[in-house]
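Archive transcription. Copying these from loose printouts into the bound notebook so they stop getting lost. Printout 1 of 2:
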Amino acid sequence: MPIASRGTSSGEEVMTTRILSALALVLLLPFAAAVSPQARAQSYPAKAVRLVVPLPAGGATDVIARAVSQRLSEMWGQQIIVENKGGANTQIGAEAVAKSAPDGYTLLATSEATLAVNPFLYRKLAYEAKDFVPVSGLGTITQALVVHPSVSANTVAEFIALAKSKPGELNYGTLGIGSSSHLNTISFESLAGVRLTPVHYRGGAPALTDVIGGHTQVLFISVTLMNQPWKAGQLKALGVGGGKRVPQFPELPTIAESGLPGYQAVSWFGLFAPVGTPAGIVRNMNADVQRILADPTFQEKFLTPNFFEPIVGSADAFASYVKAEQARWSKILADNKLSAE
Protein backbone atom coordinates (compact mmCIF):
# COMPACT_ATOMS: atom_id res chain seq x y z
CA MET A 1 0.00 0.00 0.00
CA PRO A 2 2.69 2.50 0.79
CA ILE A 3 4.43 1.63 -2.51
CA ALA A 4 1.16 1.90 -4.46
CA SER A 5 0.32 5.15 -2.74
CA ARG A 6 3.68 6.73 -3.67
CA GLY A 7 3.27 5.55 -7.23
CA THR A 8 -0.23 6.90 -7.73
CA SER A 9 0.38 10.27 -5.98
CA SER A 10 3.78 11.23 -7.43
CA GLY A 11 2.16 13.67 -9.89
CA GLU A 12 0.11 15.21 -7.12
CA GLU A 13 3.23 15.58 -4.96
CA VAL A 14 5.06 17.40 -7.75
CA MET A 15 2.09 19.69 -8.27
CA THR A 16 1.76 20.33 -4.54
CA THR A 17 5.46 21.17 -4.30
CA ARG A 18 5.15 23.65 -7.13
CA ILE A 19 2.08 25.30 -5.59
CA LEU A 20 3.74 25.59 -2.19
CA SER A 21 6.89 27.05 -3.76
CA ALA A 22 4.86 29.61 -5.70
CA LEU A 23 2.83 30.45 -2.59
CA ALA A 24 5.98 30.89 -0.54
CA LEU A 25 7.39 33.21 -3.19
CA VAL A 26 4.23 35.33 -3.20
CA LEU A 27 4.22 35.52 0.60
CA LEU A 28 7.88 36.48 0.70
CA LEU A 29 7.69 39.22 -1.96
CA PRO A 30 6.44 41.95 0.40
CA PHE A 31 9.11 40.96 2.93
CA ALA A 32 11.79 41.04 0.24
CA ALA A 33 10.66 44.49 -0.87
CA ALA A 34 10.71 45.68 2.72
CA VAL A 35 14.22 44.49 3.42
CA SER A 36 15.80 45.33 0.08
CA PRO A 37 16.81 48.87 1.14
CA GLN A 38 18.29 47.44 4.33
CA ALA A 39 20.14 44.77 2.37
CA ARG A 40 21.47 47.44 0.05
CA ALA A 41 22.55 49.55 3.02
CA GLN A 42 24.43 46.61 4.45
CA SER A 43 26.47 46.33 1.24
CA TYR A 44 27.15 50.09 1.16
CA PRO A 45 27.28 51.77 3.49
CA ALA A 46 27.82 49.20 6.22
CA LYS A 47 28.83 51.84 8.77
CA ALA A 48 28.62 55.57 9.43
CA VAL A 49 29.71 57.93 6.65
CA ARG A 50 31.74 61.09 7.30
CA LEU A 51 30.73 64.12 5.26
CA VAL A 52 33.20 67.00 5.40
CA VAL A 53 31.98 70.54 4.72
CA PRO A 54 35.09 72.75 4.33
CA LEU A 55 33.19 75.88 5.35
CA PRO A 56 31.61 77.18 8.58
CA ALA A 57 28.24 75.94 9.78
CA GLY A 58 25.18 77.91 8.74
CA GLY A 59 26.30 78.86 5.23
CA ALA A 60 24.64 77.71 2.02
CA THR A 61 27.06 74.80 1.54
CA ASP A 62 26.45 73.55 5.06
CA VAL A 63 22.68 73.97 4.80
CA ILE A 64 22.23 71.95 1.61
CA ALA A 65 24.78 69.33 2.71
CA ARG A 66 22.90 68.68 5.94
CA ALA A 67 19.50 68.57 4.27
CA VAL A 68 20.62 66.01 1.68
CA SER A 69 22.65 63.98 4.18
CA GLN A 70 19.63 63.63 6.46
CA ARG A 71 17.62 62.12 3.63
CA LEU A 72 20.52 59.88 2.59
CA SER A 73 20.86 58.66 6.16
CA GLU A 74 17.20 57.64 6.13
CA MET A 75 17.60 55.86 2.78
CA TRP A 76 20.80 54.07 3.74
CA GLY A 77 19.93 53.19 7.32
CA GLN A 78 23.29 54.56 8.45
CA GLN A 79 24.39 57.70 10.25
CA ILE A 80 26.04 60.46 8.23
CA ILE A 81 28.33 62.58 10.39
CA VAL A 82 28.64 66.12 9.02
CA GLU A 83 31.93 67.71 10.00
CA ASN A 84 32.56 71.41 9.40
CA LYS A 85 36.26 71.78 8.71
CA GLY A 86 36.70 75.32 7.45
CA GLY A 87 39.74 77.44 6.77
CA ALA A 88 42.05 78.63 3.97
CA ASN A 89 39.21 79.08 1.49
CA THR A 90 38.11 75.39 1.85
CA GLN A 91 41.67 74.00 1.57
CA ILE A 92 41.84 72.44 5.05
CA GLY A 93 38.70 70.35 4.71
CA ALA A 94 39.40 69.42 1.09
CA GLU A 95 42.91 68.24 1.93
CA ALA A 96 41.54 66.01 4.72
CA VAL A 97 39.16 64.29 2.29
CA ALA A 98 41.79 64.01 -0.45
CA LYS A 99 44.00 62.04 1.95
CA SER A 100 41.19 59.74 3.10
CA ALA A 101 40.71 56.15 2.00
CA PRO A 102 38.74 55.95 -1.29
CA ASP A 103 36.11 53.61 0.11
CA GLY A 104 33.03 55.83 0.09
CA TYR A 105 33.08 56.48 3.82
CA THR A 106 34.60 59.97 3.63
CA LEU A 107 32.92 62.48 1.32
CA LEU A 108 33.23 66.19 0.55
CA ALA A 109 30.33 68.62 0.13
CA THR A 110 31.63 71.92 -1.14
CA SER A 111 31.15 74.97 -3.36
CA GLU A 112 32.79 75.93 -6.63
CA ALA A 113 35.73 77.48 -4.77
CA THR A 114 37.37 74.14 -3.97
CA LEU A 115 37.76 72.65 -7.45
CA ALA A 116 36.87 75.37 -9.95
CA VAL A 117 38.67 78.35 -8.40
CA ASN A 118 41.39 77.38 -5.92
CA PRO A 119 43.46 75.24 -8.34
CA PHE A 120 43.87 78.30 -10.57
CA LEU A 121 44.11 80.95 -7.86
CA TYR A 122 46.71 79.63 -5.42
CA ARG A 123 50.34 79.21 -6.38
CA LYS A 124 50.62 76.42 -3.82
CA LEU A 125 47.60 74.28 -2.99
CA ALA A 126 47.22 71.57 -0.37
CA TYR A 127 45.42 69.29 -2.86
CA GLU A 128 44.79 68.90 -6.59
CA ALA A 129 41.55 68.80 -8.53
CA LYS A 130 42.43 65.30 -9.74
CA ASP A 131 42.33 64.10 -6.10
CA PHE A 132 38.53 64.01 -6.29
CA VAL A 133 35.83 62.28 -8.31
CA PRO A 134 32.53 64.16 -8.79
CA VAL A 135 29.58 62.25 -7.34
CA SER A 136 26.60 64.54 -7.84
CA GLY A 137 25.68 68.16 -8.13
CA LEU A 138 23.52 69.39 -5.27
CA GLY A 139 22.24 72.81 -6.26
CA THR A 140 22.91 76.35 -7.38
CA ILE A 141 22.09 79.74 -5.88
CA THR A 142 21.96 82.91 -7.93
CA GLN A 143 23.91 85.93 -6.74
CA ALA A 144 22.39 89.41 -6.81
CA LEU A 145 23.97 92.82 -7.34
CA VAL A 146 22.79 95.04 -4.48
CA VAL A 147 23.63 98.64 -3.58
CA HIS A 148 22.92 101.00 -0.70
CA PRO A 149 19.76 103.10 -1.28
CA SER A 150 21.91 106.24 -1.51
CA VAL A 151 23.54 105.00 -4.73
CA SER A 152 21.98 106.95 -7.58
CA ALA A 153 21.35 103.96 -9.84
CA ASN A 154 18.22 101.86 -10.17
CA THR A 155 19.30 99.59 -13.02
CA VAL A 156 22.46 97.76 -14.01
CA ALA A 157 22.97 100.10 -16.96
CA GLU A 158 22.68 103.15 -14.70
CA PHE A 159 25.11 101.60 -12.22
CA ILE A 160 27.69 100.93 -14.94
CA ALA A 161 27.40 104.53 -16.11
CA LEU A 162 27.80 105.77 -12.53
CA ALA A 163 30.83 103.57 -11.88
CA LYS A 164 32.48 104.75 -15.10
CA SER A 165 32.00 108.36 -14.03
CA LYS A 166 33.60 107.66 -10.63
CA PRO A 167 36.42 105.13 -11.20
CA GLY A 168 37.52 103.55 -7.93
CA GLU A 169 35.21 105.69 -5.79
CA LEU A 170 32.56 103.05 -5.14
CA ASN A 171 33.47 100.38 -2.56
CA TYR A 172 32.30 96.79 -2.82
CA GLY A 173 32.24 94.11 -0.13
CA THR A 174 33.88 90.74 -0.56
CA LEU A 175 34.13 87.62 1.57
CA GLY A 176 37.87 87.52 0.95
CA ILE A 177 40.22 87.00 -1.99
CA GLY A 178 38.94 84.22 -4.21
CA SER A 179 35.45 84.20 -2.66
CA SER A 180 32.39 84.20 -4.90
CA SER A 181 31.60 87.83 -4.05
CA HIS A 182 35.16 88.85 -4.95
CA LEU A 183 35.37 86.95 -8.22
CA ASN A 184 31.85 87.85 -9.33
CA THR A 185 32.70 91.52 -8.87
CA ILE A 186 35.98 91.18 -10.75
CA SER A 187 34.15 89.48 -13.60
CA PHE A 188 31.58 92.29 -13.58
CA GLU A 189 34.32 94.95 -13.64
CA SER A 190 36.03 93.23 -16.56
CA LEU A 191 32.91 92.94 -18.71
CA ALA A 192 31.51 96.37 -17.81
CA GLY A 193 34.80 98.23 -18.05
CA VAL A 194 34.53 99.76 -14.57
CA ARG A 195 36.78 99.90 -11.51
CA LEU A 196 35.54 99.43 -7.94
CA THR A 197 37.47 99.29 -4.65
CA PRO A 198 37.31 96.07 -2.57
CA VAL A 199 36.62 95.91 1.17
CA HIS A 200 37.18 92.42 2.59
CA TYR A 201 34.97 90.80 5.24
CA ARG A 202 34.97 87.47 7.06
CA GLY A 203 31.50 86.47 5.89
CA GLY A 204 28.37 87.38 3.98
CA ALA A 205 26.43 88.62 7.00
CA PRO A 206 28.90 91.37 8.05
CA ALA A 207 29.42 92.41 4.43
CA LEU A 208 25.68 92.75 3.94
CA THR A 209 25.30 94.61 7.24
CA ASP A 210 27.83 97.22 6.09
CA VAL A 211 26.02 97.75 2.79
CA ILE A 212 22.76 98.24 4.69
CA GLY A 213 24.56 100.68 6.98
CA GLY A 214 26.08 102.57 4.06
CA HIS A 215 29.71 101.81 4.99
CA THR A 216 30.15 100.12 1.61
CA GLN A 217 28.01 100.77 -1.44
CA VAL A 218 28.06 97.60 -3.52
CA LEU A 219 27.88 93.84 -2.95
CA PHE A 220 27.28 90.62 -4.83
CA ILE A 221 25.41 88.39 -2.41
CA SER A 222 23.16 85.33 -2.65
CA VAL A 223 19.47 86.00 -3.24
CA THR A 224 18.85 84.08 -0.01
CA LEU A 225 20.62 86.72 2.09
CA MET A 226 19.45 89.61 -0.07
CA ASN A 227 15.76 88.77 0.02
CA GLN A 228 14.61 90.14 3.39
CA PRO A 229 16.57 93.44 3.51
CA TRP A 230 15.60 94.13 -0.10
CA LYS A 231 11.91 93.67 0.69
CA ALA A 232 12.35 95.88 3.75
CA GLY A 233 13.80 98.68 1.59
CA GLN A 234 17.20 98.54 3.29
CA LEU A 235 19.01 98.14 -0.02
CA LYS A 236 18.37 98.18 -3.73
CA ALA A 237 18.68 95.07 -5.88
CA LEU A 238 19.70 95.90 -9.45
CA GLY A 239 19.81 92.44 -10.99
CA VAL A 240 20.57 88.76 -10.56
CA GLY A 241 23.45 86.80 -12.05
CA GLY A 242 21.65 83.69 -13.25
CA GLY A 243 20.75 82.77 -16.81
CA LYS A 244 17.11 83.37 -15.99
CA ARG A 245 15.10 85.42 -13.52
CA VAL A 246 14.53 84.04 -10.03
CA PRO A 247 10.98 82.59 -9.89
CA GLN A 248 10.30 84.06 -6.44
CA PHE A 249 10.74 87.64 -7.73
CA PRO A 250 10.35 87.69 -11.51
CA GLU A 251 10.29 91.49 -11.59
CA LEU A 252 14.05 91.56 -10.93
CA PRO A 253 15.90 91.27 -14.26
CA THR A 254 19.08 89.34 -14.89
CA ILE A 255 22.31 91.31 -15.20
CA ALA A 256 22.87 89.74 -18.63
CA GLU A 257 19.62 91.15 -19.98
CA SER A 258 20.23 94.52 -18.31
CA GLY A 259 23.21 95.66 -20.31
CA LEU A 260 25.91 93.05 -19.67
CA PRO A 261 25.35 90.09 -22.03
CA GLY A 262 27.10 86.89 -21.00
CA TYR A 263 27.54 87.85 -17.36
CA GLN A 264 27.06 85.03 -14.85
CA ALA A 265 27.14 85.01 -11.05
CA VAL A 266 25.91 81.69 -9.72
CA SER A 267 27.30 79.67 -6.83
CA TRP A 268 27.06 75.90 -7.06
CA PHE A 269 27.45 73.07 -4.57
CA GLY A 270 28.33 69.44 -5.11
CA LEU A 271 29.27 66.12 -3.57
CA PHE A 272 32.72 64.61 -4.18
CA ALA A 273 34.66 61.50 -3.13
CA PRO A 274 38.40 60.75 -3.05
CA VAL A 275 39.71 59.57 -6.40
CA GLY A 276 39.74 55.79 -6.57
CA THR A 277 36.34 55.37 -4.92
CA PRO A 278 34.65 52.38 -6.62
CA ALA A 279 32.56 53.42 -9.62
CA GLY A 280 29.61 51.37 -8.41
CA ILE A 281 29.47 53.28 -5.13
CA VAL A 282 29.69 56.59 -7.00
CA ARG A 283 26.84 55.60 -9.34
CA ASN A 284 24.63 54.45 -6.47
CA MET A 285 25.28 57.61 -4.47
CA ASN A 286 24.48 59.75 -7.50
CA ALA A 287 21.22 57.89 -8.07
CA ASP A 288 20.19 58.33 -4.42
CA VAL A 289 21.05 62.04 -4.37
CA GLN A 290 19.20 62.61 -7.63
CA ARG A 291 16.16 60.82 -6.20
CA ILE A 292 16.20 63.21 -3.23
CA LEU A 293 16.56 66.32 -5.41
CA ALA A 294 13.68 65.18 -7.63
CA ASP A 295 11.35 64.54 -4.70
CA PRO A 296 8.50 67.13 -4.83
CA THR A 297 8.32 67.30 -1.04
CA PHE A 298 12.05 68.01 -0.72
CA GLN A 299 11.77 70.67 -3.39
CA GLU A 300 8.75 72.31 -1.74
CA LYS A 301 10.02 72.16 1.85
CA PHE A 302 13.72 72.87 1.31
CA LEU A 303 14.97 73.80 -2.16
CA THR A 304 12.41 76.45 -3.14
CA PRO A 305 12.25 78.31 0.21
CA ASN A 306 16.05 78.52 0.24
CA PHE A 307 16.31 79.59 -3.43
CA PHE A 308 18.23 76.48 -4.49
CA GLU A 309 17.95 75.14 -8.03
CA PRO A 310 18.78 71.41 -8.13
CA ILE A 311 21.66 70.22 -10.31
CA VAL A 312 20.22 67.32 -12.28
CA GLY A 313 22.26 64.59 -13.94
CA SER A 314 24.62 61.65 -13.65
CA ALA A 315 28.07 61.67 -12.07
CA ASP A 316 29.60 61.97 -15.56
CA ALA A 317 27.34 64.92 -16.37
CA PHE A 318 28.38 66.63 -13.14
CA ALA A 319 32.05 65.98 -13.96
CA SER A 320 31.53 67.76 -17.29
CA TYR A 321 29.84 70.65 -15.47
CA VAL A 322 32.83 70.98 -13.13
CA LYS A 323 35.28 70.95 -16.06
CA ALA A 324 33.34 73.74 -17.77
CA GLU A 325 33.42 75.79 -14.58
CA GLN A 326 37.16 75.20 -14.24
CA ALA A 327 37.69 76.51 -17.77
CA ARG A 328 35.53 79.57 -17.10
CA TRP A 329 37.17 80.55 -13.81
CA SER A 330 40.72 79.82 -14.94
CA LYS A 331 40.21 82.28 -17.81
CA ILE A 332 38.72 84.96 -15.53
CA LEU A 333 41.62 84.60 -13.09
CA ALA A 334 44.23 84.64 -15.84
CA ASP A 335 42.67 87.61 -17.61
CA ASN A 336 42.71 89.59 -14.37
CA LYS A 337 46.18 88.33 -13.36
CA LEU A 338 44.78 87.26 -10.00
CA SER A 339 46.74 84.87 -7.79
CA ALA A 340 47.30 84.18 -4.11
CA GLU A 341 49.83 82.39 -1.92
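Printout 2 of 2:
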Amino acid sequence: MRSAEVTRNTKETQIRVKVNLDGKGAAKLATGLPFLEHMLDQVARHAMLDLDIEAKGDLHIDAHHTVEDIGIAVGQAVAKAIGEKRGIRRFGHAYVPLDEALSRVVLDFSGRPGLEYHVKFTRALIGEFDVDLMHEFFQGFANHAQVTLHIDNLRGDNAHHQCETMFKAFARALRMAVEPDPRAAGTVPSTKGTLQG
Protein backbone atom coordinates (compact mmCIF):
# COMPACT_ATOMS: atom_id res chain seq x y z
CA MET A 1 0.00 0.00 0.00
CA ARG A 2 1.41 3.38 -1.05
CA SER A 3 0.85 5.45 2.07
CA ALA A 4 2.84 7.91 4.14
CA GLU A 5 2.52 10.21 7.12
CA VAL A 6 4.43 13.44 7.68
CA THR A 7 4.44 16.12 10.34
CA ARG A 8 5.49 19.73 9.94
CA ASN A 9 5.95 21.84 13.04
CA THR A 10 7.01 25.47 12.92
CA LYS A 11 6.40 28.52 15.11
CA GLU A 12 3.49 29.30 12.80
CA THR A 13 1.86 25.92 12.20
CA GLN A 14 1.62 22.35 13.49
CA ILE A 15 0.49 19.98 10.76
CA ARG A 16 0.08 16.23 10.38
CA VAL A 17 -0.81 14.72 7.02
CA LYS A 18 -1.48 11.08 6.22
CA VAL A 19 -2.12 9.98 2.65
CA ASN A 20 -2.94 6.65 1.04
CA LEU A 21 -2.62 6.84 -2.74
CA ASP A 22 -4.57 3.59 -3.13
CA GLY A 23 -7.47 4.63 -0.92
CA LYS A 24 -11.19 4.96 -1.43
CA GLY A 25 -11.58 8.74 -1.48
CA ALA A 26 -12.04 9.25 2.26
CA ALA A 27 -11.13 12.58 3.85
CA LYS A 28 -10.68 13.42 7.52
CA LEU A 29 -9.92 17.12 7.77
CA ALA A 30 -9.44 19.49 10.70
CA THR A 31 -7.74 22.71 9.61
CA GLY A 32 -9.88 25.55 10.91
CA LEU A 33 -10.49 26.58 7.28
CA PRO A 34 -13.86 25.25 6.08
CA PHE A 35 -13.51 26.33 2.45
CA LEU A 36 -10.04 24.77 2.13
CA GLU A 37 -11.44 21.58 3.66
CA HIS A 38 -14.20 21.61 1.03
CA MET A 39 -11.49 21.77 -1.67
CA LEU A 40 -9.33 19.09 -0.03
CA ASP A 41 -12.38 16.82 0.19
CA GLN A 42 -12.67 17.19 -3.59
CA VAL A 43 -9.03 16.10 -3.93
CA ALA A 44 -9.57 12.97 -1.84
CA ARG A 45 -12.81 12.05 -3.58
CA HIS A 46 -11.73 12.61 -7.16
CA ALA A 47 -8.14 11.40 -6.84
CA MET A 48 -9.44 8.32 -5.00
CA LEU A 49 -6.89 8.75 -2.25
CA ASP A 50 -7.42 8.80 1.49
CA LEU A 51 -6.41 12.09 3.09
CA ASP A 52 -6.15 12.75 6.82
CA ILE A 53 -5.05 16.27 7.81
CA GLU A 54 -4.84 17.92 11.21
CA ALA A 55 -3.58 21.50 11.17
CA LYS A 56 -3.30 24.23 13.76
CA GLY A 57 -1.99 27.55 12.54
CA ASP A 58 -1.79 31.24 13.35
CA LEU A 59 -5.24 31.95 11.93
CA HIS A 60 -5.52 34.97 14.23
CA ILE A 61 -3.02 36.63 11.84
CA ASP A 62 -4.42 35.19 8.62
CA ALA A 63 -4.65 31.88 6.80
CA HIS A 64 -1.50 32.27 4.68
CA HIS A 65 0.93 30.17 6.74
CA THR A 66 -1.63 27.43 7.36
CA VAL A 67 -2.65 27.05 3.70
CA GLU A 68 0.93 27.15 2.42
CA ASP A 69 2.19 24.67 5.01
CA ILE A 70 -0.68 22.27 4.33
CA GLY A 71 0.33 22.35 0.66
CA ILE A 72 3.94 21.64 1.65
CA ALA A 73 2.98 18.76 3.94
CA VAL A 74 0.58 17.18 1.43
CA GLY A 75 3.33 17.39 -1.19
CA GLN A 76 5.83 15.76 1.16
CA ALA A 77 3.39 12.97 2.01
CA VAL A 78 2.61 12.26 -1.65
CA ALA A 79 6.32 12.22 -2.53
CA LYS A 80 7.04 9.82 0.33
CA ALA A 81 4.12 7.56 -0.58
CA ILE A 82 5.04 7.34 -4.25
CA GLY A 83 8.71 6.56 -3.57
CA GLU A 84 10.87 5.88 -6.63
CA LYS A 85 7.82 6.20 -8.91
CA ARG A 86 8.33 2.77 -10.41
CA GLY A 87 5.44 1.57 -12.55
CA ILE A 88 3.38 4.78 -12.43
CA ARG A 89 1.97 6.61 -15.42
CA ARG A 90 3.91 9.76 -14.35
CA PHE A 91 1.83 12.23 -16.38
CA GLY A 92 -1.73 13.26 -15.65
CA HIS A 93 -4.19 15.73 -17.13
CA ALA A 94 -7.83 16.66 -16.70
CA TYR A 95 -10.45 19.15 -17.76
CA VAL A 96 -13.29 19.68 -15.29
CA PRO A 97 -16.38 21.89 -15.73
CA LEU A 98 -18.81 23.17 -13.14
CA ASP A 99 -21.66 25.07 -14.74
CA GLU A 100 -20.01 28.07 -16.47
CA ALA A 101 -16.50 27.41 -15.12
CA LEU A 102 -13.84 25.21 -16.72
CA SER A 103 -10.33 24.38 -15.54
CA ARG A 104 -7.45 22.33 -16.93
CA VAL A 105 -4.65 20.77 -14.89
CA VAL A 106 -1.62 18.95 -16.27
CA LEU A 107 1.07 17.48 -14.06
CA ASP A 108 4.27 15.48 -14.31
CA PHE A 109 6.03 13.62 -11.51
CA SER A 110 9.26 14.80 -13.10
CA GLY A 111 11.33 15.30 -9.97
CA ARG A 112 11.63 18.96 -11.08
CA PRO A 113 9.31 21.26 -9.16
CA GLY A 114 7.56 23.97 -11.11
CA LEU A 115 4.21 25.71 -11.06
CA GLU A 116 2.49 27.51 -13.93
CA TYR A 117 -0.64 29.01 -12.39
CA HIS A 118 -3.02 31.00 -14.58
CA VAL A 119 -6.13 31.76 -12.56
CA LYS A 120 -7.91 35.11 -12.46
CA PHE A 121 -10.61 34.87 -9.85
CA THR A 122 -13.67 37.04 -10.30
CA ARG A 123 -13.52 38.13 -6.68
CA ALA A 124 -10.93 38.24 -3.90
CA LEU A 125 -12.87 36.34 -1.24
CA ILE A 126 -14.99 33.20 -1.20
CA GLY A 127 -16.85 33.70 2.04
CA GLU A 128 -13.95 34.72 4.30
CA PHE A 129 -11.32 32.77 2.34
CA ASP A 130 -8.67 34.76 0.45
CA VAL A 131 -8.43 33.20 -3.02
CA ASP A 132 -4.79 34.32 -3.41
CA LEU A 133 -3.89 31.57 -0.95
CA MET A 134 -4.74 28.85 -3.47
CA HIS A 135 -1.58 29.75 -5.36
CA GLU A 136 0.39 29.27 -2.12
CA PHE A 137 -1.16 25.83 -1.58
CA PHE A 138 -0.22 24.64 -5.07
CA GLN A 139 3.24 26.21 -4.92
CA GLY A 140 3.94 24.34 -1.68
CA PHE A 141 2.59 21.12 -3.15
CA ALA A 142 4.59 21.38 -6.39
CA ASN A 143 7.85 22.19 -4.60
CA HIS A 144 7.61 19.32 -2.15
CA ALA A 145 5.95 16.64 -4.28
CA GLN A 146 8.62 17.45 -6.88
CA VAL A 147 6.10 17.83 -9.69
CA THR A 148 5.72 20.11 -12.66
CA LEU A 149 2.18 21.47 -12.34
CA HIS A 150 0.22 23.56 -14.83
CA ILE A 151 -3.11 24.99 -13.68
CA ASP A 152 -5.34 27.02 -15.99
CA ASN A 153 -8.81 28.32 -15.25
CA LEU A 154 -10.11 28.67 -18.78
CA ARG A 155 -13.35 30.43 -17.91
CA GLY A 156 -15.72 31.16 -15.07
CA ASP A 157 -17.89 33.87 -13.57
CA ASN A 158 -18.37 32.41 -10.09
CA ALA A 159 -15.20 32.26 -7.96
CA HIS A 160 -16.42 29.22 -6.03
CA HIS A 161 -16.98 27.37 -9.31
CA GLN A 162 -13.57 28.48 -10.61
CA CYS A 163 -11.84 27.15 -7.51
CA GLU A 164 -13.77 23.91 -7.38
CA THR A 165 -13.07 23.07 -11.03
CA MET A 166 -9.39 23.74 -10.41
CA PHE A 167 -9.21 21.38 -7.42
CA LYS A 168 -11.27 18.66 -9.10
CA ALA A 169 -9.09 18.83 -12.21
CA PHE A 170 -5.99 18.68 -10.00
CA ALA A 171 -7.41 15.59 -8.29
CA ARG A 172 -8.20 13.83 -11.56
CA ALA A 173 -4.78 14.63 -13.02
CA LEU A 174 -3.11 13.42 -9.82
CA ARG A 175 -5.12 10.19 -9.93
CA MET A 176 -4.04 9.53 -13.51
CA ALA A 177 -0.36 10.30 -12.85
CA VAL A 178 0.04 8.04 -9.80
CA GLU A 179 -1.93 5.12 -11.25
CA PRO A 180 0.06 1.95 -11.81
CA ASP A 181 0.73 1.32 -15.50
CA PRO A 182 0.50 -2.46 -16.01
CA ARG A 183 2.68 -2.26 -19.14
CA ALA A 184 5.46 -0.52 -17.21
CA ALA A 185 5.43 -2.53 -13.98
CA GLY A 186 8.59 -2.08 -11.96
CA THR A 187 10.19 0.43 -14.33
CA VAL A 188 10.83 4.13 -13.80
CA PRO A 189 8.97 6.07 -16.53
CA SER A 190 12.00 8.02 -17.72
CA THR A 191 14.77 7.41 -20.24
CA LYS A 192 17.16 8.70 -17.57
CA GLY A 193 16.21 5.81 -15.31
CA THR A 194 15.39 8.16 -12.44
CA LEU A 195 12.78 10.78 -11.57
CA GLN A 196 14.61 12.17 -8.57
CA GLY A 197 15.42 15.53 -10.14
